[in-house]
């Protein structure tokens, strides 16, 4: 395993696109950390964003994992291009001739995906911790390290997405087309959502509630639910509008963990099957 | 003798087309083998199959008498297929370091092998800036990194300029002299003729010949003779048991042989008949003639 990671990071280290995209990722994360200083004016409330209490422990774990999740596309491009370029440069063929087995090849890519998912989780952990220590109103150890389930959820959703990218790269062999495929799949999930919502509305059934936990991207995005309505000021606004109590379960549900893990496994398994069957 | 590779009835079909049809041969340690055949005769596909990048339709192959798994066997060989494949943004050294990691060997031979192929001066330039000849030489350096038990080269001089071809050929000849087993696929006959001791001839995926180069054709060559007295010489030649045919050409007679001959004895016999030869030499059939003959016959 150490050897495979070493091989994969050698490729990662000396690839231009991976360097550039990783730097962009880190820069955006750092910039996001300064958003606490932004002055806002919502609903009669005046002050900086941090005064809203959004950087309070443990709420910050939820907010930052949710926000930083959108940046995973940068790392995803790295994985897609590293995989697809192995085809276009024919280095995949040379790797096999040099004595890497097809299984080792997929495993090395999987290890890279796991490591990158772990690293991004680490980054969001450290960034949130720093932000929280600066801005949080509560600094008791028990509160700081509570409700941290969003971090493993962040890891799992990233891993699933990276496995999806890896599979797309292996399947279509060209990075641009592979990214296109991911985009098309995302639109496809939106179409399914529209259709099933329509069916639900017309026949008074609940298909979307089932399907959303099956679709890979939707299921992964449900791992960390939107945190905004949790902010008391926003929640208060909604309750005012709807004249009722706003209740929502913001926790990480097991079903989404299971489906995301299952999809990760399937994407890796299919990548291996495709690679094994294909003549290079 | 130690067998390095044994191929048994290997076949590959591409949607109905038989690219390789029931090919069998054995590679033994210490020889230099050539796989000859016109473009599209199945050379690269055969190599692709034994190198684990093309899945065979049927048949089998065995590296090192079956003592290791396929991908471990590949760590002990060096191979270049068709064109050099490296990571464009990495330098020569970085690319070779990666190969060392894949082959699980130490990195201390990188400098030495880059020196063999004369690339030391450019070792820190990215691969994408190399000329085709340099890329091909880097590929050879990469194949030599593990001091391979067999070196497999597929069309190593394809697309190179004359200097590049000469350089690659010199490198191959040096490697062959050092006793490394080589398997060289090519459609260029003089290339194979210059370095190979054994040859496998393929046409449309079928093996036409497999054996030593000089036994490729049961033919002993041609003797060219000439004398002032051509009529006398013709009479003399017709009576000789070794002459299959005698043909008069502008520059003299061409005699096709059916057995090995001693030119000295021919000279003496002719002189005894009062014919003084002003030209007498033996010409072995070139591999090209033999190859054309072989591919035409079948």
TrEMBL record, chain A:
It holds the Pfam family ABC2_membrane_4. The keyword Acyltransferase does not apply. Keywords: Membrane, Transmembrane, Transmembrane helix. Coiled coil: none annotated. It comes from the Bacteria. The chain crosses the membrane at residues 20-40, 60-84, 110-134, 154-172, 179-199, 250-272. PANTHER family: INTEGRAL MEMBRANE PROTEIN-RELATED, MEMBRANE PROTEIN. This is ABC-type transport system involved in multi-copper enzyme maturation permease subunit. The lineage of its organism: Bacteria, Pseudomonadati, Bacteroidota, Flavobacteriia, Flavobacteriales.
UniProtKB/TrEMBL annotation, chain B:
The keyword Lipid metabolism does not apply. Transmembrane segments: none annotated. One of its GO terms (molecular function) is ATP hydrolysis activity. SUPFAM superfamilies: P-loop containing nucleoside triphosphate hydrolases. InterPro entries: AAA+_ATPase, ABC_transporter-like_ATP-bd, ABC_transporter-like_CS, P-loop_NTPase. Signal peptide: none annotated. Keywords: ATP-binding, Nucleotide-binding, Transport. PROSITE patterns: ABC_TRANSPORTER_1, ABC_TRANSPORTER_2. Coiled coil: none annotated. Residues 5-229 form the ABC transporter domain. Belongs to the ABC transporter superfamily. This is ABC transporter ATP-binding protein. It comes from Nonlabens ulvanivorans (Persicivirga ulvanivorans). The lineage of its organism: Bacteria, Pseudomonadati, Bacteroidota, Flavobacteriia, Flavobacteriales.
